Amino acid sequence: MKTRLRIRRQDGPGQASRWEVREIHHEEGHTVLSALMERNSEVPPVALEASCLEEACGSCAMLINGRARLACGTLLEGLADKDGLVTVEPLSKFPVVRDLVVDRGRVRADLLHMDATLGETRIGDPSRVQDLAACVACGACLEACPNYGASEARGVPFIGAVVLHESRLANLLGVDKVDRAVRLEALMGNGGIADCGNVQNCVNACPKDIPLAESIAELGRDTTVHAIKRWLFR
């Protein structure tokens, strides 16, 4: 089979982008990532991120035909448009480092600020969070969110669904009530849960089918209760 990849290239931060078309000969079952890697012996190679190759690390997230997806889990079959093109671009909500590589450092910084680092070991009941712990911070939910990366009147950008979800997970597993209270206070601040427009694009965008709307709703209840208790016992 033959498919043409239309790739947005960029040599570095702040540089102008350009389009490049590469023809790919592939077998059934090939993914967008395997096609990109197969042709990367060409000069100059397309810069991209990939680690696990099995949808477990989130590093290969990119825009494929305008939608955020994990390239290692996206099959080429059926993707081409009427001109035989599959369009591949870097995520648009993060600074481009080069080609398809973006800097998601802001997500890591926001997670650390909320003390909700992905994969952190905490004491708790794992059975309560088994369906919630699959987040790989790929950024698909943030790419789909109209509030993430938008200009903020108060000068503090919205932290986004991934940080809200991981904050809920940290609350469920944590045993230190002081940490939980501090986290809820931070979530109530500028750029926190009040800046979520509840559009729920993130739910459809998540490649792991994580119940993000449920997490955001639970945090909404938790912050409301926390605010009432703070007012009653001030």
Short recap of the structure:
The chain has 234 residues and is of the alpha+beta class.
Features:
7 strands, Fumarate Reductase Iron-sulfur Protein, Chain B, domain 2, two-stranded antiparallel sheet, 7 helices, 5-stranded mixed sheet, 2 domains, 234 residues, single chain, Ubiquitin-like (UB roll), 30% helix, alpha+beta, elongated
Structure description:
This protein folds into two domains: 2-102, Ubiquitin-like (UB roll); 105-232, Alpha-helical ferredoxin (Fumarate Reductase Iron-sulfur Protein, Chain B, domain 2, Orthogonal Bundle). The protein is built from seven helices and seven strands; from the N terminus they run ββαβββββαααααα. It has helices spanning 32-38, 105-113, 140-144, 161-173, 177-187, 201-205, 212-232, and strands at 2-10, 17-25, 61-64, 67-70, 85-89, 96-98, 101-102. The radius of gyration is 20 Å and the shape is elongated. Mean pLDDT is 87; it is low at 119-123.
Topology:
Layout: E1 2-10, E2 17-25, H1 32-38, E3 61-64, E4 67-70, E5 85-89, E6 96-98, E7 101-102, H2 105-113, H3 140-144, H4 161-173, H5 177-187, H6 201-205, H7 212-232
Parallel strand pairs: 1-5
Antiparallel strand pairs: 1-2, 3-4, 3-5, 6-7
Largest sheet: 5 strands, mixed
Secondary-structure content class: alpha+beta
What is the string of helix and strand elements? EEHEEEEEHHHHHH
- Report the sheet-strand fraction: 15-25%
Number of structural units classed as domains: 2
**Superfamily (CATH H level) name of the largest domain:** Alpha-helical ferredoxin
Mean pLDDT: 87
Strand order of the largest sheet: 2-1-5-3-4
> How many helix segments?
7
Number of strands: 7
- Rg (CA only): 20 Å
Q: Could you give the distance between the termini?
A: 69 Å
What is the overall silhouette?
elongated
What CATH calls the topology of the largest domain is Fumarate Reductase Iron-sulfur Protein, Chain B, domain 2
**Helix fraction by DSSP (H/I, runs of at least 4):** 25-40%
Briefly, what CATH class of the largest domain? Answer: Mainly Alpha
Q: Which stretches are poorly predicted, pLDDT < 50 over at least 5 residues?
A: 119-123
CATH architecture label name of the largest domain: Orthogonal Bundle
